[in-house]
Amino acid sequence: DAKTTQPNSMESNEEEPVHLPCNHSTISGTDYIHWYRQLPSQGPEYVIHGLTSNVNNRMASLAIAEDRKSSTLILHRATLRDAAVYYCILGLTGNQFYFGTGTSLTVIP
Amino acid sequence: SQTIHQWPATLVQPVGSPLSLECTVEGTSNPNLYWYRQAAGRGLQLLFYSVGIGQISSEVPQNLSASRPQDRQFILSSKKLLLSDSGFYLCAWNPGGFHTEAFFGQGTRLTVV
């Protein structure tokens, strides 16, 4: 299965932008890049996804490298409610979604 | 609107006892359904997924099985629980296809004692 690599943890000050990186060097041409986040003892929550072009929604922006081997989730102004584990995953052919260990984001007041 | 129901929220079971966790989806038809497990402090491990009634794909050999008796019902079972089956179990669905968003239930915290 195609894998993603993320830093184990990151910190950000409240109200500052956060850039969460993800490497997916074995991505195939039809794999979508998805981001989810998970609060303790809750199910993951969808954040954003994309294929080739950069994507924006009310929660975040997704910047995808031209070769698609990496992507960055951008939270424009971190709030305390954004503290969570962020997962970068590939939506693979065959309908599987494989999660890695994610990045634990700490937001400092 | 679509909703996903997963129960129970917490469960404590003795080793060797059977298990049945149920997940149902409302407001959609023919969803892809998934069971994940999350051990303490770990990422999510895909256990089973289903693209239709009676169609189950197993990702990891284990003490668990899954069934999909109805279009929007997904059941996770075990005949005899092991201590290693403890964890946070999550059901998820998506409309179909790897280009679509997945929606997760609130999870079941299973402790095998």
What does this structure look like?
Chain A contains no helices and ten strands. Chain A is mostly beta strands and 109 residues long. In chain A, strands 1, 3, 4, 8, 9 and 10 form a six-stranded mixed beta sheet that branches. In chain A, strands 2-7-6-5 form a four-stranded antiparallel beta sheet, with no helix packed on it. In chain A, strand 6 (61-64) and strand 7 form a beta hairpin. Chain A is globular and about 40 Å long. The model of chain A has no long low-confidence stretch (mean pLDDT 90). Chain B is mainly beta and 113 residues long. Chain B contains no helices and eleven strands. In chain B, the strands form two sheets. In chain B, strands 2, 4, 5, 6, 9, 10 and 11 form a seven-stranded mixed beta sheet that branches. In chain B, strands 1-3-8-7 form a four-stranded antiparallel beta sheet, with no helix packed on it. The chains are: A mainly beta (109), B mainly beta (113).
List keywords for this structure.
heterodimer; A: 109 residues; mainly beta; six-stranded mixed β-sheet; four-stranded antiparallel β-sheet; B: 113 residues; seven-stranded mixed β-sheet; 11 strands
Topology of this structure?
The complex is a heterodimer of chains A (109) and B (113).
Chain A: E1 9-13, E2 18-23, E3 32-38, E4 45-50, E5 55-56, E6 61-64, E7 70-75, E8 84-91, E9 97-98, E10 103-108
Parallel strand pairs in A: 1-10
Antiparallel strand pairs in A: 2-7, 3-4, 3-8, 5-6, 6-7, 8-9, 8-10
Chain B: E1 3-7, E2 10-13, E3 19-26, E4 32-38, E5 44-52, E6 55-58, E7 65-70, E8 73-78, E9 87-94, E10 103-104, E11 108-112
Parallel strand pairs in B: 2-11
Antiparallel strand pairs in B: 1-3, 3-8, 4-5, 4-9, 5-6, 7-8, 9-10, 9-11
